[in-house]
Amino acid sequence: MKNYVMAISLSLITFTGIALPPIANAEELNPAEVQTPDYAKWGKLAMKETKAKYPQADIIDYLHEGSKKKGNKKVEIFKLWLKQDNKEFGVFVNIEFDPKTEEVASITFKETDR
Q1: Is 93 within 8 Å of 112 (Cβ atoms)?
Q2: C-alpha angle with apex 25: 21 to 31, nearest 5 degrees?
Q3: Where are the alpha helices (DSSP H) in the chain?
Q4: Which domain of life is it from (predicted)?
Q5: 25 vs 48 pLDDT, higher one
Q6: Same-domain pairing of 28 and 49
Q7: In this structure, are 26 and 47 located in the same domain?
Q8: Inter-CA distances, 84 with 15, 21, 50, 55, 57, Å
Q9: What is the dihedral of CA 17, 22, 27, 29, to 10 degrees?
Q10: Domain range holding 15?
Q11: Total domain count for the chain?
């Protein structure tokens, strides 16, 4: 792989005079070493619960808005963009849980047009 990338880079330099910036080594691109964000588990839950609440809608976008502490609980905040028929709308999903046990205390939804 490294030789192939080097050959392409050298060809581009030779024919165009343009050098490409160095790319990461193949070892750096190893998917086994890519860390899953802490909020990924909660994002899956947010999408699952949103799909249950809006079964006729398609989820077309997803954004982790962040997290916050609420007393001894933690809240993960997501914004999902949905499309149903010809209407698109956003839904903020807040998942409140105990960070020690990961027990969900509540899931709330708030629609938005932005």
Answers
A1: no
A2: 125
A3: 2-16, 40-53
A4: Bacteria
A5: 48
A6: no
A7: no
A8: 51, 43, 13, 9, 4
A9: -100
A10: 2-33
A11: 2
